[in-house]
Specification:
By secondary structure, this protein is mainly alpha-helical. About 75% of the residues lie in helices and about 0% in strands. It contains 30 helices and no strands. The longest helix has about 35 residues. The N and C termini lie far apart (about 85 Å).
Length: about 550
Amino acid sequence: STQSTWVFSNRAAIQTELLQCIQECNDRGLTHTAKWACEQLVGLQPEEEGSECISFLPSAPSTSVQEHGIYLLAKSVFDLGEYLRCWHFLRNATGSKAVFLKLYAFYMAGEKRKEEEILEQHGPDAAGTQQAVPNRHIEAIYEELRDACEKKQADAFLLYLFGLVLKRRDMKVEARAAFAASVSAMPCLWCSWSELTMLCTDPKEFLALPLPNHWAKEFSCAQMLSVFNKWDESLLYYSRLRIVFPNSNFLKSGIAVAHYDLKEYSEAAAEFEEVIDSDPYQLEHIDMYSNILYVKGDKTGLSTLAHRTINIDKFRPETNCAIGNYYSLKSQHEKAVVYFQRALRVDPNCLSAWTLMGHEFVELKNTQAAIEAYRHAVDICPRDYRAWYGLGQTYEILQLYYYAIYYFRKAATLRPSDSRMWCAIAGCYETLKRPHDAVACYHRAEANGDDGIAVAKLAQVYQELNQPHKAAQYYAKFTLQSADELQQTDRDALVFLARYYKDQGQLDNAEQCCIRLLAFSGPEKVDGKVLLADIQALRLEEERKRELKTPATQQASHDC
């Protein structure tokens, strides 16, 4: 909170910093980072009336008119996607801005050629093969940047580009150092923060890096904690930032995603709807909003969303994911697969499309295709628990239970507080006749607040292990949780408890269980009537014993 107060007190400094970042990034073709900085600028808390206006004018070029003209020409062709022309025009550039644009254009030309080679080799259905073809310009860029970076002559942007090159060369430790140096030189450079969070394998590793104590670090910490499924901690950072950036749609989307992963769907939907109201034509994270509507079973809302996204941009991956979810909710799984495949043609790294397509193949009983889709998802993001869980479910369908346990454990490692993961592992152990291992997993699920599934399963396993006292304890707990609505799953619990209480002489408790059984309309109702008759007979027998015992006691007292 101390840092947030400091940030708030320097609103004018934040504005100036963001304006400079926007100009610098636009000059270099880093449009995504410029957009992020614009969103935070617009998202700042409105200034009070009478406050001093900030005037920000671009500085005059430090080069000659001829050199500046060449730079502007190069930037124009870069914006048109003609990257090799841009590189050619700047081949003799010396200024840091022009050198960056030259090398970044050469990098983008390599990426463009890589995509063309993938299409030539694999055709339009080349999703998932992007890693097989390298960017052939990486080595040349590495050689040109290495000396400047080692001699500490590179600015924040060149350090960012060097980090990208090092990452492509699988030099992850060096890449992390380059991105850390980049944000130290320019703390608002969001592209470096984003790469840094994705390269770290643990939050402690991120915090151990020499990073500036800056408000942008708060954004990065929130994103990094989200990546590692620490959603509660992520929300703490977002709540602090919201004081300073109350109107930031980027921030609202991050909060919505956190609520979504915490299964707080109403809160997540409210945040997404607020973003849509303020920016109705944006499509970022719309695929997650469509997931929420899917989980809530809102066909009308999902249909409306799908039509709206088509009218905005029918070829965006998010649009196709929303349409795929709509058809999935209507149980038209073949059509859903078609739209997820369309999303992957546009963006082969679309994590949502791979995972959702895996779910559809499971529904279609195409386990081999489901496994392939889930494997692509974990290759793209090994920290996504949904794909690991999907792999576990698929191998469970194939009755390969040890494989299923392996993948469920991967998911549980990433999501240890999710009871579904532990219930899935326990179910496999039950099938493998390992009840003690199953009990341990069900206890983990119960400790993490399951919906009664683990409690009922614990009771059943203890019953099979011939431990009636523990079975009765968990059956009683289960029936208390489902006291308001009787389900078919209550039958076994109530029958067991009625018999257990009857054998233990707790006839009142047994009678209450039998009365609840009478609410069913099947064999359990008959069981309830039979047990009530047995309980009534036991009570009559107890009364006769008391009556026989009472005269004998009175006679003994009279004799005395």
